Amino acid sequence: MGLLSALLCSALTASTQLDEPLLPNPNTGETEAEFAARTAWWREAKFGMFIHWGVYAVPADGEWHLNSHRMQVADYEKYAPRFNPVRYDAERWVRLAKAAGMRYIVITSKHHDGFALWPTKQSDWSIAGRTPFRRDPLKELAEACRKHGITLGFYHSIMDWHHPDYLPRRPWETQTRPAAGADLDRYIDFMKAQLTELLTQYGRIGVLWFDGGWEHSADELRAKEVVAMIRRLQPWILINDRINLPEDHATPEQHIPAGAMPGGRLWETCMTMNDNWGYHRQDNNWKSTQDLVRKLCDIASKGGNFLLNVGPTELGEIPQPSVERLEQIGRWMRVNGAAIYGTTKSPLGRLPFEGRVTRKGRTLYVHAFEWPEDGRFVLPGVQTAPSKARLLGSRVRVQAAGVATEAGPATVLRVASKPKPAAGLEGLPLVIEVEYAAPIQVARIVPPLSVDAQGRASLLASDAVLKGTRAFLETIDGVPNVGGWLDLGDTVEWTVRVPKTEIYRVELEYACPPDQAGGTFEVSTDDGQRLGGTTGNTGSWRRFDTLALAGTLTLRQGERTIRVRPLRFRGNALMNLRRVTLVPAP
């Protein structure tokens, strides 16, 4: 048996039974079982530490310093001799991550400024070649991770503002650094050589986290060739989607999708604790621990992972506000980690209380963000009778029963009294563990078509079912919308109970930039009615407008499905869709 086969068999044997299907990476040729085995550790881990660290910690106003200050490369290089992280302690970093409940670390081996955080032989623009710090921080971090059972991953920027062969140049340096003679293919060879060093010198690497690939196509980046090389060197590795190939998982940045990715697609939200990835001395806009823990619960309830960032200083210290929040999260995880690790997305629809639900086999975990006055939690649609329930970290009695409600079957939880949180956990979610003696079955509950006083009905993106492989729910300005609509096979649909037959006009609230306007789509019903539409220019992906379609739809009484599907793209995407509104026809 080959090494990869042995690893996959071992991982599959150790992994828990899947609660739902996964979408395998189409580029690896793996079966669903092989993909599940290779990604088992990552799906179990759920929570990781992102580390943005490099020369940009010296000016200390974020990792885009060279770009935001429109600097010449030669001037930016002058920061390197001042980068001397004498207080760097890999052991301390890893212990902090582990105590916070994090199970993997992804560190910037190289950001967009091209500076290598290891002693690369491909260039002297590195921590060994240009700084007084002569140690290899990646080697020390790899050793500490192995010692403490933390999986190590590398972030690696494709974009490189420093390398003479990377194109395009920044707009302000076209005269000082002319592009004549530059060769992007030669740069890709350089990138492959650096990646080979990273993947052969530091032991087993769990994640290769690309970034900065948006200036070129997958073909220009020789993406398939690069990925194939990576998988030859580390067959067990996970690769993200930022080399312009879907690969193993999606990476929404600084936001949490409004729902799980379609088709079982793996995903991971990466997020800062303040407003910057790299160390920013003046940025004190820190998220609260309560906010961060709720985000962790929200992400887990949608089947995702949470990669939470720290930006160490030029001396190698993680800022104290980050440390404090990680320590507080760790206290919560020690009590409630079972509700996060190895869980899958909630099988339930909209909850009638403020909170989230995660699942693990025959167990549901109810994350209560706010406590109902009557101490009663209803889990709608659950057909299986619960066997027992308990509040994690508390002896407060919890009663659980299966009941029939007007809307359908449900599990009802009653808590004798609101528990007093343990010291340090005040204001953080309380978690109820509900066990079932049989596999959890959830009834399909079809919601009624909800109309306002004018008889208008709104079909919201957050309530839609997405079918396909690429479109997903995201949030813009606090409002969910369907984004990533890049595949003609992706559809968005709503199934509702219509109380009486009615004729409606159809309006869409959507966003579409000028270079994508002109795409066509149709709105249809399950009984064959169709209305066509063409997207217009709303100004940007973030600016939403209303589009009224010509014609009407007759929704007959009973259960009905309304569907939106693309017919033709004007560019490479259709639109961002917030809602479909049904307006009674005069």
Amino-to-carboxy terminus distance: 71 Å
- Number of DSSP helical runs: 12
**What is the CATH C level class of the largest domain, in words?**
Alpha Beta
Q: What proportion of the residues is helical, as a percent range?
A: 10-25%
The CATH topology of the largest domain, please?
TIM Barrel
Q: What value does the Rg take, in angstroms?
A: 26 Å
Query: Structural class of the secondary structure composition?
Result: alpha+beta
Shape: globular
The CATH superfamily label of the largest domain reads Glycosidases
**Spatial strand sequence of the major β-sheet:** 5-4-3-2-1-7-6
What is the structure about, briefly put?
The protein is of the alpha+beta class and 586 residues long.
Features:
586 residues, alpha+beta, TIM Barrel, Immunoglobulin-like, 7-stranded parallel beta sheet, 5-stranded antiparallel beta sheet, 12 helices, globular, disordered N terminus
What would your notes on this structure say?
Strand 21 (520-525) and strand 22 form a beta hairpin. The protein is α+β, with helices and mostly antiparallel strands and 586 residues long. The model is unreliable at 1-17 (pLDDT under 50). It has three domains: 46-339, Alpha-Beta Barrel (TIM Barrel), CATH 3.20.20.80; 355-436, Immunoglobulin-like (Sandwich), CATH 2.60.40; 457-584, Jelly Rolls, CATH 2.60.120.260. It has a seven-stranded parallel β-sheet with strand order 5-4-3-2-1-7-6. Strands 15, 20, 23, 24 and 26 form a five-stranded antiparallel β-sheet that branches. A five-stranded antiparallel β-sheet has the order 16-19-25-21-22, with no helix packed on it. 43% of the residues are buried. Helix 1 (3-14) packs across helix 2, helix 6 (90-99) packs across helix 8 and helix 9 (184-200) runs parallel beside helix 10 (223-233). Helix content is 20%, strand content 26%. It starts with a helix and ends with a strand.
